[in-house]
Amino acid sequence: MTWLVTGGAGYIGAHVVRALQEAASAGETHLRPVVLDDLSSGHAEFVPDDVPFVRASVVDTAAVRTALAEHGVTGVVHLAGFKYAGVSVQRPLHTYTQNVTGTAHLLEAMADAGVDRIVFSSSAAVYGTPDVDVVTEATPTAPESPYGESKLVGEWLLRDQGVATGLRHTSLRYFNVVGSGAPDLYDSSPHNLFPLVLDALTSGRTPRVNGTDYPTPDGTCVRDYVHVADLAVSHVAAARALAAGRALDPVYNLGSGDGLSVAQVMATVARVTGTDFTPEVAPRRPGDPARIVASGEAAARDLDWVMRHTPEEMVASAWAAHQHTI
């Protein structure tokens, strides 16, 4: 018995794979991971040598169906997708193909193979710009980008498939995922804040802030920043619960209850790296809401969700991993 991790060669997926490996090594052999990734943004070297790796896209139903059968898959952690909110505004059709069509094809293959458990990578982008200080799972969804819309549709697909086939599922709504749980696993996104800032510093450039005129205390976006290793722990907890037949809520926020502004993150980076700088100011990015901070109380209750890392530790671990890209 194994769990298929789609997007398992990516930054978040690779951490989930290693967390599943740790669980399997501790005796939970039914949680052994298998990776499916088309390497459009992932890295083959992120996949451990002893983890089976299928190079394929979730859009390829036949390839997914074969992988499920050949590896004795009993559950799926679905992280594969196009994850850039700002870019999705310029590439809506690509975003929907990867995130909506891909999820539908995955669910079709799962139904054909009799695999009835899935943990879905959703996003805080489903909330758009909420009018509350702290988001909960009951906060109305109002996505403001094709990316956020595609993630919400993904949740609906799971819900409807659950009604139709008895699929057991839960969706984890991510906030800003940062840091590293191992020096060889780094965030290589060309759009995420941490890699952009660290790459600028190592290249001798000044980091940029996208927008300083938001309705926030210092004018920069406010977000929950959560450590990727903490996120991975909760994915394993969700897989474990579904494997055991325990009931889970349809959605969980993996949030801190607090937030940091982009300016505060910049100041933390300067302290941790010992590099003093004043960020350049760039225009806002399309699709970026001013503030999203969420309560993680439900996930703490059911999915072992704990903020185990301080902002300084998040930056330090990201900085250590970034050295492997130089």
Automatic annotation (TrEMBL):
<dbReference type="InterPro" id="IPR036291">
    <property type="entry name" value="NAD(P)-bd_dom_sf"/>
</dbReference>
<dbReference type="GO" id="GO:0033499">
    <property type="term" value="P:galactose catabolic process via UDP-galactose, Leloir pathway"/>
</dbReference>
<dbReference type="Pfam" id="PF01370">
    <property type="entry name" value="Epimerase"/>
</dbReference>
<comment type="similarity">
    <text>Belongs to the NAD(P)-dependent epimerase/dehydratase family.</text>
</comment>
<keyword id="KW-0520">NAD</keyword>
<protein>
    <recommendedName>
        <fullName>UDP-glucose 4-epimerase</fullName>
        <ecNumber>5.1.3.2</ecNumber>
    </recommendedName>
</protein>
<dbReference type="InterPro" id="IPR005886">
    <property type="entry name" value="UDP_G4E"/>
</dbReference>
<keyword id="KW-0119">Carbohydrate metabolism</keyword>
<dbReference type="GO" id="GO:0003978">
    <property type="term" value="F:UDP-glucose 4-epimerase activity"/>
</dbReference>
<keyword id="KW-0413">Isomerase</keyword>
<dbReference type="InterPro" id="IPR001509">
    <property type="entry name" value="Epimerase_deHydtase"/>
</dbReference>
<comment type="pathway">
    <text>Carbohydrate metabolism; galactose metabolism.</text>
</comment>
<feature type="domain" description="NAD-dependent epimerase/dehydratase">
    <location>
        <begin position="3"/>
        <end position="255"/>
    </location>
</feature>
